[in-house]
Structures are given as structure tokens and as C-alpha cells.
Amino acid sequence: MRQLFSFVFLFILPLVSIGQFEPSYRQITVADGLPTNTIYDIIQGPSGEIVIGHQYGLSRFNGLDIIEMPAREQPPALSNLVMIGTSRYLCRSFNDEIYLVSGNKLHAIDSLSNKRVGYSTFFRYACHMYRSKANRISIVCDGMKPQDITIFQLPEDAKFHSVTEKNGHVYAIARDSLYEVNLNTAQLVKKMAIGSGIHQFTYALGDSILLFKPQENRLHYVTNSGLSEPFIFPGYNTNHKVNFIREIGDGLTAIGTFGGLYLYDRSFQLIGNYYTNMQISCMTIDKEKNLWLGTLQDGILIIPSTEIRSVKSNRLFGEATTTSKLYTINDSLIALGSFNGKLSIVNEDGFIQKKIDFDRMDEIQSIFYNKDKNELLLFCKQLLVMDYNSGKIKNEIPIPPAKTIYVSGDTIYCGTSTGLYVLINNQIVLNSDGELWIRNLLPYKNGLILETPSGIHYFDNTELKTMELDEFKAINELPKPANFIASNDTIYFTSNASVHYLFQDKVETLYRTTSNKLRSLTSVNGKIYAADNKNIYLLDGSVIDQTKGLELNEIKGLTNLNSSLLVYNTERIQVFKQFIGKNENPPRLFIKEITGSFDRKLISDFSENLLQISFEILPNISALGNSKLAYELSGEINVSDTLTVAEQEQISFERLPYGEYVLTLTAINEDGATSKPKKFNLTVNRPYYATWWFRLSILTAAVLITLLIMRLRIKVLQRKNIEKLEKERLKTHALIAELKAIRSQMDPHFIFNCLSSIQSSILNNESEQAYENLTVFTKLLREALLFTSREFISLEEEVGFIEKYVHLEQMRSSSPFDFELKLDQELDISNARIPSLITQPFVENAIRHGLMHKESDKKLVFIVSKVDGGFEVMIKDNGVGIERSKSINAEIRKNHQSTGVKAIHDRIELLNKRGHLIKLKTITSDAGTEVVFTFYHKK
């Protein structure tokens, strides 16, 4: 066995910045809509929008869109943005041309411009806007009124620079002196000598004022007696040009230079020198505590937190290499394996400690650090046992690909794709070849948990065999248990979207997530974090995603790094030393424009009827476009929904029914905080055709047209029946019988009597009753016309037709009668089929011949019931009976001959010949008549 690789390169490296973790950021460049990557100043307005001064003027950013502020002429490069109102700003060019920003427009202010050498520095105190220029400090704006009042002036040959305002006092450097001026009294408080030197800076840190001399790397506190003894910024390069020095909260000091950003803690110890390949020009902190850095070549960096840091894998390997395996050593060092046989050891700040090249193009699949022997075990084509200090390979053992390694004493356990390998003193003592594909090994009781795609198993170290434990049955019954970790005496694992734990042989659910599938689990400071490929989930229900600083577009794994959460994939590593909490700041909803057919009072005619509302939700920086608008429209119709701002910045409603509406709009940020609702009262005027007189005239015309169409339709049907007589004799007889039945049902007397009754209601100002009866009558005629052309209709349609017919008979009858409809609930009348209008003639006979001749207590009952093999329809009246009715009719109408009932009998006979089974039975007496139809299902 070879003891060494042919080439082993081991570097004990100094701390170099090439691999340093840097604060995570989101970058905005010309690719995202910026007019230029050269940025000079950034400020956030009170509404939450970001105003950007750059090489070509000003732009406005709302979190989604970058809008260039228009001006009469192309403006020069602009800087020194200062807010003077809710939507007004002052700024100046490098030629000291002064501009006012009002709304989204840029205006040049000639009255404040001064082309002398030097340029203005604006700052604000109370309600005044101040300017330091050349040798003067003056008030240039009182509220909203421009002016130019000098409050303090130096000799002509002096010039102010580096002006800092703190609690109404201005600290400004001129020549070799520092001046403190009280803005309230416009008096010089003190002047102190600070020594010669250029590019000196003052800045406020907490309640103190400090003076920084970059070329000497000296930092002084400004005291009542002068300057304190100097401090030195460790790691600061005096050759880097300084653009600003500022406090960024929690006592941290930020120095923006042409050599990147320097961060120092409260004791002025270096936290890091970041973005060293960028020229940092300006800085601001927004209301959501995002740190904004402007650069002169790389656009804008948005940093959610300086405690969330990341680095690309190729910087840790020093070349275009990606990470195949990550392992933490004693929670303070990170071991990174690559896909091409390279290993890097990195400390918790991202500085490379060691780099080893195994000179082979094979993936490092697993890593384990044996603290007792100070050995690093890893699988790279073979199992390698390496001395950690020297980097020498002590043993090289051929085994199948191992995804996981665990060491206890002199025993090495390797979970491979073909089973578990056990080695004692580097000699293989067990090979469970082909039994299991092991993804993870975890110590449990006196053995190991073997995690496999099919579930988990227990390996007994004493007996060197795999067995099943009772407590594992409950785990294996869960869907796809995976990602097992140990924390104290508890085993945690995932199952689809939930996190479970095993404690004292009991399995319980810790929490559930909204994920489809969790793929990684870790414990940090007693808290359990789970991740899918996009987000990280916590027990309290919070989610770490892009809005909370997560940079990785796909998560490969999580682990603990010195009480910080480390997240990684093949391309990048990210460390969360702290987490961004829920954004409790309520967003604000701004209505940009209301267009469409609605006027200023939000009233619209019905004909055009279009409402479009363009809106904006601010601030929207952290939300990354995930802010939402919830809307609710209540009135004649009710509509509600929620839309995402990144997908839609306008809401529209078209063709609303006439009436009154209330539209409520509410903005929701990425964590559910809501704005104050905005309500709009809308009115859509009634159209002319919705008036009662127009509807009545339309209905009258509809009745006349329906009558005409019905007569024409009947003639057409008659002509078609005659043409088909010779071809389908049997079918023609059936149709002729049906038409006779229909004609007998809907005779002109009935039609004109109904119209006369409706006309009488109208003349008696019973418009609602007339309208109702006319509607029923129109529907009855339309159904009669429709059903005439159909051989069969549903029982539901037959019953509905009879109800309308009886209603009109009751309406026009001078002698009222009662009507009762009984339906068997077990019968599905919508699917049951019946010959069209077959019962109507018998209902008509019951009314006109049975009940008409009775003086009082008249009642008609229509009963539908289910029977074996079909259903039954009974028409029952308590009239005078058939025989008595015939004698009365004989006296009144001697030549009358009823053909409707005969046509029904003919029709039944023809249908039965065609395979249908219909029975008709009539029972009559002086107490009334019962007509019973029995319809059996066709076989």
C-alpha cells in the first residue's frame, strides 16, 4: 500500500483576505436598471423610497423599479443629498450647481448656486437646512422657504471641510484647527489646534465626536481640553483614499475607501476589510436597518446585516473549484473538500489556514476529524488517514465510496454505498457488502444509527451486527425519515415537512413547516434549524429566506460553527452570527394614479365603467418584491384577493354592475405587518335599460315576438312533419299526435285570457303583479315552443311547466282553486325522462271540466312518486267527476269534441310500440277524478 500520494502540497498559510467571509449583500447595477454604476450619494426618504445620486443625475428606487428623475436638461453628476421635506431634497453637483428635488422632478436653483472654488456641504438641524461652503456656514432653507443667511464666517483665506453636526453643534475643520459652532446661538464655542494635514475627518460615535487623520492612521476623541491620545486602526492601509468615516450602529465604525470597506468594533479592533476590489464612495442605513454602500464602478451593495457573511467556494480553494463536502472541526474550523481532490481548512472568519492538493481528480465525499489522534479521515477514491498537523497520509485503505465516517477509539466506521465497513487499527474487520446504502452514521446508546433511504437501523458495536430496535419502528413508520442529528440526549430527524425527535424511546413531533421536503437539519445553541432547498425554518415559525439575508439559491446543508449557523452549497458558504427578526414596521400604501371612467368623486357611467388604480408599497427594500396588496370590493358583487407587488403594480375593475361599492386596499409586508387600510366609495350609475318602464316595454315586445316566433315555428314543424311522412311513418304519427296535444293545451282563449288579466293588472297599477305574471307567461310560451320540438324532457322540466301553467290558470280564473305539488324526495327528477307535456291536457281538464263546475273548496293535487322500475305521476282533483262534467259541457257546448286526451292516448300507444312502457289509468266519481301515469324505465 502506498503511504503517500505522488504529489501532496501542504501550505500553512497566513491570514489572507482572499478567502475572508464578507457581509452578504444584494447588488444593484446597470443590469438592474441603474443609469450608471458610478454612485456618489444615497438617501432614504420619509416614505421609504431610496434616492440615488450618480454620474448622470438622480434616480428613485422603490425596491422594484429604478426611475430616473426628469430634468429640463441633462443634469451633471449629483451628490450630498439632504432631505428638506416629505418629498423634497437638496443636492449639488461637483461644480456646486444646486438642485431641488420635488416629487419625482429635478429643478436647478440658481439663487443658491455659487461657482467659486469649493462646493457646498448640506446638513440639517431642527427645521433648518444649513450649508457649509468655503469659509461660511449659512441657513439656506427655513422650512420650505429658500434663503441664504450667514451664521458663522471665517477669514477669507480659510475654508471649511469635513463638517459634522451633533445635538445642534457643528464640528468643522479649517486649516489646522477644529471649530465648534452652536447653531442655536450662532456662536463659536471653541477652537482647537489639531495640527497640519489634509483630508482630516470628523464623525460622531455615540455621544462623542472623533477626529480621524487617514494619512497618519490616527484617531482622536474631541474633548473639552483638546484631542485625546491617538488610537490606531489595526489593519488599515494609509494608501487607501478615504471617502467617509461613520458610525453604523452598536458602536461600529465604518470607513469607506478606494480599497473597500473597513469595519471596526467599539475598541477600534478590526472586524474585517471587505470588498477590497471595490471603490466605496458613500453609505446610508435605511429604516429596515439595511446598510447601503455606493461604489464608483460596481453600482450599489445592499447589506441586510454585517453579522450575516458569506464567501464563494472558489475563493477558499484559491481557484475555480466548488465544494463537494463541508465538515466543521471543533466548531471553529471548517474543512472543505472539492470535486477534484482538494482540501482547504478555513477558520470561522473565512481565512485559509491550510490547503492540500491530493493530485487526483476525485471527489472528496466524506470528512471526519479524530480529536484523540489528531487525524483527519476522508474519502477521496480511497479512505485516507492523514496526520492533521503535517498533512502526511498515514494510511490509504481501499473501500467503496463512503458518504459518512465516524470514529470511536481505535475503531473506524464507514457508511458506504454497499454497506457498513468497520476497521480496527486500520484493518477491515467487518464488511456488510451489499446490504445497505448508508447515508449517515450517528452514535446511539452502545452502537450506531445507520441512516439509509429505506429507514434507519441499529448497529451493535459489541456484537458487530445490525438489528432492529423497538423504538425505531415508530420512526420507520413515518414517511422518509432522514437528516438525523444528536443534541444532548435527544435524536432529531425530519420526515417530509416536519421535524421530530426521539427521547427516552419515544417519538414526538417538534414542529411542522410549510416546505414540501426538508433536506438538512442542525442544532445551534439548543435551537433546531431545518432547511429545504430554498429556505431555513425555525421552531417559532419564522423563516430565513432572501428577505432575511439568505444568499444561496439552493441549500445543500446546515451545520453549527462556533454558535453560528453555517449554510452552504457547492458554490457559496454563508454564516449567520445573528438573525434578522420579523419586520414589524407597517408598510405604507401610496396611490400613484387613478384612471379609467371614474371621475374625481369616483362616479362612473355604466357604459364605460373602468377603474384602474396604480399603487406603490413602501418601504419595499427588504421585501424583495414580496410585499402584497390585499383588496376587497363589496357591493352589488363581492370580490377579494391578494396580489404580489413584484407581479402587479396596478389593480383594475371592469364592467361592474350598477350600484354602490366600497373598495378597501391594505398593504402587507413580507412578514405580515399591515398598513392602515385605504377605503374608496365607488358609484356606477344605473343604465337607461334598467328602468322599470324600459323593462316593461321590452317584456311586452318580447311577448309579441315570442307569439310570432311560436306560430312560425309551429308552421315550420308542420311542414317538416309532412315532408318526413313517407320516410318515417311511425315517427310522423307520434309527432302529429304530440302537436295535436300541444295545440289542445295552448289554445288562443287561454293565451288571450292571460294577456287580458295582465292588462287588467297594469291598468289597476298592479305593476309588480303584472310584471311577475307576464314573466311567468313568457317563460311558459318559450318552454312550450322548446318542448314541442323535443320528444322527451326531464321530469323536472315537466313539473316546472305544470307549475307555471297552473299559476296562470289561477291568475285568470274568476273562481279560485288550491294547487298542491308533492314530490318524492327519493326520486331524482332532474334525470328522470318523460314524454314532453304529456300531463298538461289532464291538468287542463281537471281545472276546466272538473273544478270549474264546482262552487267552492276546489283543490288540484299533482303527485310524483317513485315505484319499482320507474315512477308514477298522479293528477287528482276534487271536482264533479268526468260523467257530471260531460253532461254539463253537453248543455253548454253541444258541438264540443275534446281531442287533447285522445291525442295523448294515441301518443302513448305509439311510444309503447317503439319499446317504451307507459300506463295510463283514470278513476272518476262524483267526488273527483284521479289520472295516474306510470312510466317504466326502457330496457
How would you characterize the largest beta sheet? 5 strands, antiparallel
Q: Which residues sit in consecutive blocks of at least 5 with pLDDT less than 50?
A: 1-17
Which strands sit side by side, in order, in the main sheet? Answer: 1-35-34-33-32
Binned, the helix content reads: 10-25%
End-to-end separation in angstroms reads: 88 Å
Given the C-alpha coordinates, what overall shape results? flat
Number of strands: 73
The overall pLDDT, averaged over residues, is: 87
Number of helices: 10
Structural category is alpha+beta
Q: Percent of residues in beta strands?
A: 35-45%
Describe this structure in words.
By secondary structure, the chain is an alpha+beta fold. The protein is 16% helix and 44% strand. The chain contains 10 helices and 73 strands. A 5-stranded antiparallel sheet has the order 1-35-34-33-32. The protein has a 5-stranded antiparallel sheet with strand order 2-31-58-57-56. Strands 60-66-65-62-63 form a 5-stranded mixed sheet, with no helix packed on it. Strand 62 (628-634) and strand 63 (639-644) form a beta hairpin. Helix 6 packs across helix 7 (795-812).
